[in-house]
Amino acid sequence: MQVDLEKFGKAHPNKALELGILIVAFMGFTDYVLGSELSFSIFYLIPITLVTVMTGRTKGVMISFLYTTIQIAGDLEHRRHYLYRIAIFH
What we know:
- By secondary structure, the chain is mainly α.
- The chain has one domain.
- The chain contains four helices and no strands.
- Helix 2 packs antiparallel against helix 3 and helix 2 runs parallel beside helix 4.
- It is elongated.
- It starts with a helix and ends in a 13-residue tail after the last helix.
Protein backbone atom coordinates (compact mmCIF):
# COMPACT_ATOMS: atom_id res chain seq x y z
CA MET A 1 0.00 0.00 0.00
CA GLN A 2 1.52 3.29 -1.11
CA VAL A 3 0.71 6.61 0.50
CA ASP A 4 0.55 9.60 -1.81
CA LEU A 5 2.36 12.22 0.29
CA GLU A 6 1.76 14.94 -2.28
CA LYS A 7 -2.01 14.52 -2.07
CA PHE A 8 -1.94 14.27 1.74
CA GLY A 9 0.30 17.34 2.07
CA LYS A 10 -1.95 19.47 -0.11
CA ALA A 11 -5.10 18.39 1.72
CA HIS A 12 -4.09 19.65 5.17
CA PRO A 13 -1.17 22.10 5.05
CA ASN A 14 -2.53 24.29 7.86
CA LYS A 15 -3.06 21.28 10.13
CA ALA A 16 0.56 20.23 9.55
CA LEU A 17 1.76 23.73 10.42
CA GLU A 18 -0.37 23.84 13.59
CA LEU A 19 0.83 20.38 14.61
CA GLY A 20 4.45 21.40 13.98
CA ILE A 21 4.08 24.52 16.12
CA LEU A 22 2.48 22.52 18.94
CA ILE A 23 5.21 19.87 18.83
CA VAL A 24 7.98 22.50 18.87
CA ALA A 25 6.29 24.35 21.76
CA PHE A 26 5.82 21.14 23.74
CA MET A 27 9.40 20.05 23.13
CA GLY A 28 10.65 23.51 24.06
CA PHE A 29 8.74 23.39 27.33
CA THR A 30 10.04 19.88 28.05
CA ASP A 31 13.58 20.98 27.20
CA TYR A 32 13.19 23.97 29.54
CA VAL A 33 11.82 21.90 32.44
CA LEU A 34 14.54 19.27 32.18
CA GLY A 35 17.26 21.91 32.12
CA SER A 36 20.55 22.00 30.32
CA GLU A 37 21.68 18.50 31.24
CA LEU A 38 19.57 16.80 28.55
CA SER A 39 19.22 17.98 25.00
CA PHE A 40 16.39 17.22 22.60
CA SER A 41 17.89 19.04 19.64
CA ILE A 42 17.80 16.06 17.29
CA PHE A 43 14.08 15.53 17.93
CA TYR A 44 13.26 19.02 16.64
CA LEU A 45 13.96 17.66 13.17
CA ILE A 46 10.66 15.74 13.32
CA PRO A 47 8.33 18.79 13.28
CA ILE A 48 10.65 20.73 10.98
CA THR A 49 10.62 17.87 8.47
CA LEU A 50 6.85 17.36 8.85
CA VAL A 51 6.07 21.02 8.18
CA THR A 52 8.57 21.32 5.33
CA VAL A 53 7.26 18.24 3.52
CA MET A 54 3.59 19.08 4.04
CA THR A 55 3.59 22.86 3.52
CA GLY A 56 6.78 23.83 1.74
CA ARG A 57 10.16 25.34 2.35
CA THR A 58 9.00 28.77 3.56
CA LYS A 59 6.95 27.45 6.47
CA GLY A 60 9.66 24.90 7.24
CA VAL A 61 12.14 27.75 7.62
CA MET A 62 9.65 29.54 9.89
CA ILE A 63 9.46 26.47 12.13
CA SER A 64 13.27 26.32 12.15
CA PHE A 65 13.44 29.93 13.32
CA LEU A 66 10.82 29.18 15.97
CA TYR A 67 12.94 26.28 17.20
CA THR A 68 16.08 28.43 17.23
CA THR A 69 14.31 31.14 19.21
CA ILE A 70 13.03 28.64 21.77
CA GLN A 71 16.46 27.01 22.07
CA ILE A 72 18.25 30.34 22.61
CA ALA A 73 15.61 31.50 25.11
CA GLY A 74 16.00 28.28 27.08
CA ASP A 75 19.78 28.59 27.10
CA LEU A 76 19.59 32.21 28.26
CA GLU A 77 17.04 31.39 30.94
CA HIS A 78 19.24 28.64 32.36
CA ARG A 79 22.23 30.97 32.01
CA ARG A 80 24.25 28.22 30.44
CA HIS A 81 27.94 29.03 30.59
CA TYR A 82 30.43 27.25 28.42
CA LEU A 83 33.93 26.33 29.46
CA TYR A 84 35.37 27.30 26.09
CA ARG A 85 34.79 30.37 23.96
CA ILE A 86 33.52 28.19 21.13
CA ALA A 87 30.27 26.46 22.05
CA ILE A 88 30.44 22.74 21.41
CA PHE A 89 27.27 21.15 20.02
CA HIS A 90 25.33 19.61 22.89
